[in-house]
Fold these 2 entries.
Entry 1:
Amino acid sequence: MMIPSPWRADFPAIAALQRQDQTYLDNAATTQKPQALLDALAHYYANGAANVHRAQHLPGAHATQAFEDSRRKVAQWLNAGDCEQIIFTHGATSALNLLAYGLEHLFNPGDEIVISALEHHANLLPWQQLAHRRDLKLVILPLNGDGLIDLDVAAQLIGPRTRLLAVSQLSNVLGAWQPLPALLAMAKAHNALTVVDGAQGVVHGRHDVQALGCDFYVFSSHKLYGPDGLGVLFGRNEALQQLRPWQFGGEMVLDANYHDARFRSAPLGFEAGTPPIASVIGLGATLDYLTGLDQDAVSAHEAALHDYLLKGLEARNGIRLLGKPQLALASFVVEGVHNSDLAHLLTEQGIAVRAGHHCAMPLLKSFELAGAIRVSLALYNNSEDLERFFEALDQALELLR
Amino acid sequence: MTLPVDAITALDTFQQAASWEQRARLLMQWGDRLPALSDVDKVDANRVHGCESQVWLVGTLQDGHWQFSASSDARLIRGLVALLLARVNGLSAVELQQVDLADWFSQLGLGRQLSQSRSNGLNAVLQRMRELAH
C-alpha cells in the first residue's frame, strides 16, 4: 500500500535531504519548513527589517503590523479569543521557565506542584527547581501500562495542597494523548492553576484552548513547521494577572527611573528585549499555510502513516514498543540489541531517527532503559520514507544479530 | 612519533573497508576481540561519563608506558574504544597528550561515522586516560 503525501513538495528541504540520501524521521525533535515560511523570512529581510513596538518610522510600523498579525493568527490557531493572551517567548522551554519564575510568588512552603512521570525535561526541571527554591513538594503522577497518566491515582494525588498542575498533552516518547479534561477538572476542583505543555500536541490536529479550559498552554514554533527561537505562551486573562514579569528590559517597561520602574501588562510586559521578529512573522506565514490545508486530510494521512509504522514494527521479531503509541511517533527497543548500536547503523544508512533518552531521562529510567529509538512522523512523510527505514532496520539487525 | 603495532594493523584493516557494512563488521570484530573487563573493574568509579552507552576504563603504568583496558555495553562503541586503545596503548604520558582523536578516526576512514555525541564520548574516554596518566 502506498501512502503518498500531497504536501511533500511544499517543503523544499525534503527533496534536498533526499539528494543527500537522508530520510528524515525525527520530526518530534524539529520539523522541516514550508516554502511559505522561507518566502516570508526572505520578504521580511529583503524589504526592510525594523524593531517592533518602539519606532515611529514606516519600516518599524510595517514590522510591528506583521508581528501583531502573527499574534492574531496564533490566537486564531488556538481559538484563544483575545490576542492579548498570546505571549511570544524564545521557545517552549523559555515559556515554561517564565511560568515557573513568574508564578513563584504564589507558592508557600509545603504547597504542591503536580506533574506527570512522562514529562520531558522542559516541563520537569523548571518546576523541580521552583520546588527547591520555595520548599514545595513536587508530586509525580504515575502512568498506567498503556503510558497514560493513571486517573485513579491522580485523583488521590491532586488535592487541597495542589497549587499547580503541569502536564503534557502528548508525550514525545509515548505518543499518546493524555486524559487532560479529567486531570484539569481535578486540578480546578482544588483551585489549582493548570499548565498544558502542547509542544507535541499542537502539531497534530487543531486544539481549542478555551474548550480545553487550561490556564496556560505552551508550544514551540519549530515543531509546528515554524522558525526556531520562538515559543508561544497562551494565558487566560485571569491567570495572566497572577503572572509577574520575569525578564526585564526593552519595551516591557511602562515607566523607568533609576531606582524603580513600572511594567506593562500582558503580552508586552512578558516580552522583554527585542523579540525574535522574523521568527514571529515566519510563524504567521506557516500558520497561514497550515490553515489552508484540509485538516481532516492531514489527520487521516498521519493516522495512515502511523498505522503503517506500527504494523511494520510489530511484524519484526524482538521489537518492544514503549507504551501504546496512538499517533505521531513510536519509540522502541530491540531485544538483545543496544539502542546505540542500532542508531549507529541506521545513521550509516541515512535514516534520521532519534536514539537515546529523548530529554525525558526519568521516564526512560522508569522503563529501566538507558535509551530507545524513536521514529516520529510529519505531514510530509510518506510510506516510502518508512519503507527505507524498515529496510535499514532489517539490514542493521541482520548485522547485529 | 611512531605508531604502536596495533595501530598500524588497525589502519591496514580499516583502510581496506569499502562499504559501511564492512566497516560495521570490522568494528564489531574489534570490539568482540577486546579482552573482557572483570566485574570488579566495571564499577562507577571507572565509568566514563558523557558517552551514549556505558563505558568503563582502567589503566596501569608499566615502565613508563600506559596500558589501558576498557569495555562498553554497546558493540560498535566497544569497537571504537578498541581502536582508540590500539592507538594509545604503550604510549608515555607525554605521548598521550599529543594524540589527536579526530585525526586518528579520519585516518581509519571513520571520520564520518563519528557523530558529535559519539565523538564527545570518545573524547571523554581520551580525557580520562590523560587524567589517569597525569
Entry 2:
Amino acid sequence: MTPAVASNLKSFAKTHLPRGLNLGPAVVQLFVNDGRSTRLGLINFPSFLAPTRASRYRYALRVFDEQGREAGRAAVELAPYGAAEVDLRAVFGAALPRYGMVAARIHPLHFFSLRDRHLGRIRPQFFTLYASAGMDSVGLVHPQSNLDAAPDPGRKWLSNLQVDPAAVERIELYQINPGSAAVASEALLHGADATVLASRADSIPPRGTRCAVFDLAPLAGRHHAVSVGLRGLAAANGKPILFLHFRGGSFTCCHG
Amino acid sequence: MTAPSTPPGGWFQAPTCGSLGLSLEMRMRNTARQLGSGESKEARAWLRIDLRAYRRGELVYSNADFGRVPAGGTLAVREADFPISRGSEADPEDELLLVARTHAEGAKETFFSQEHQLVYLHWPSGAQAHLLYDQQPARPRSAPAAPIVFMMPKIWLGPQLNTYVIVCNAWDAEAPQRQTEPVKFSLLDERGGEVCAWEHRFFYNEAKAFDLGRRSAGIAAALTEPRFFNLVGRGGAGSFVLFAVIRNTKSNHFAIEHSLPPLYYMDGAIGPVRAQGCDVSLFERGESR
C-alpha cells in the first residue's frame, strides 16, 4: 500500500467510523485536595460542534494517587448541550488522595452511533479550577497531556513563564506521569540568564505525581525573574502545573 | 494614524483589562522551541517587535521598531508606558488591544511558533495572574475571515465570585471597520438552558471585557454559593483570542486562562463545524433533544 493510499484510507476512516470506535485517549490533569479544591468543567462538546446531530455522552473519570495507585472511578452523563462542574472532593469523598492525577475520557451512550462521525476522533478537553477554601485564591488551567502519552525522558525544557521573586515567595511545581512506566525527571529553577539556581531530581511512578517546591524568598532583590525547567518530560507536552504563592498567603496557578 | 505595511509574520494579541482594574504587562519572548512534530527550533538571533495599539478598531499607537528581543531574552511591554487610555466615552466593557507583530530578522520563514507571556496585576491587592500562549500567523489583508466557534465550560458566578470573558481580534485593517458578522454569545446552565444571550459586531482590532455577573444580573445576584456555567458562541470574521478571568470580588485575586479552538476537540473537517456549530438557533432542532 502506498503512503498516499494509506493516508486516504485513514482520512476516510477518521470521519466514517462509529463514534465508539473513534475516541481519543483520556485527557489528564493534576488534582489537589489539601484544603485546596479541584473542580473540573466538563462539556458535551460534540453537541456544540454538531448541533443538529447532538447526542448523549458519558465521561469516565479515574483518579490516581501520587504513587500512581488508582483511588476511584466515577461516571458523569451529559445530555445534549449539557455541561457539568465536577468537584472531585464531592464525587470521591474521603477516597480522594491529597494530590494526584485525574483522567477523563468521553464515551457515547450509543457505541455504534454515526450521528457526529464527521467530527472525526474526539478529545475530551476540560478546564480545571483550583481554589482555596472560600475561593479567595483561584487558578485555572487547561490540560496538557493524555493518558499513555509517550514520555520524552531525554528532553530539556525551559518554561517561557518568568516569575518575579519580589512578588512570588514560593513556586510549587507539580508534574504528572500519564504513562505506564516510571520517568526520571529533574525540576530546575533558572535565573533570567538560564543559570541553574536550584534543582530537585525524582522518579515519577507510572500514573503518579510529584511535587517540587522552590523557595524564592532568598532570591528577592537578587534576581528580577526566574523560570522553571525540566530535564526529562513524562509526556511530550508534559508541562508542569505551577502554583505561585504570593506574600500574604494567596496563590494563583498556571501551566509552565 | 496609518500603520506601515508589513509582510505577514506572527502576531500576538494582548487585551487590556482596565475595566477590571488590572494592569497589563506583555513579556515578548524569543526562545528555543520543540514543535509538536518533535522538531527542535533554536531561538532566532533577534526578534523585532512592531507594536500597535487599537481602541475600538482605531489605530492609536504604532511603532514598527518598538524593540528587539535577543535569543533567549525578553522584552517587557507595559500598558502604563503608553500615553493612551480607554477613552472617556468608552463603554464600560471596552478595552484597548495591543498587537505585537513579530519578525525574525534575517530568517526566511514568515511565521514561526513562539510563546509569549501576559501578566495582569491588581496593584491595590498585589494580586497577579500569568498566562502563556502562542502567537498566531498574521493574516494578509486579502485572506478570507472565517467565523469562530468557541466553548468555555469555565464560568463561575457567586456571591463573591465573578467571571469576565475577554474577547479580542486582530486583522490587517487600517481604518475602523465593523466585521460583517456578529459574534453571538450564550451563557448556559449545566442543563444547557440559556441564562442570557447577546451579540456584538466587533470592529476589526477590538477588545471587549464582558462582565458575566452584570449580563446575567437576575441569576448571579440571587446565588448564595458559587455556581458553574458554560459560555458558548459563534460568528465574527476575524482572528479571535478569548480568555476567561475568574475573580473573587472580595479578595480581588483572580485566575486567567485562554480558550481552546475546536481542533483541540476533534480532528475531522472544520467546515461543517463552522457552518453550524454553536448556532443557538440550531439547538432546539437537535433530533435528540
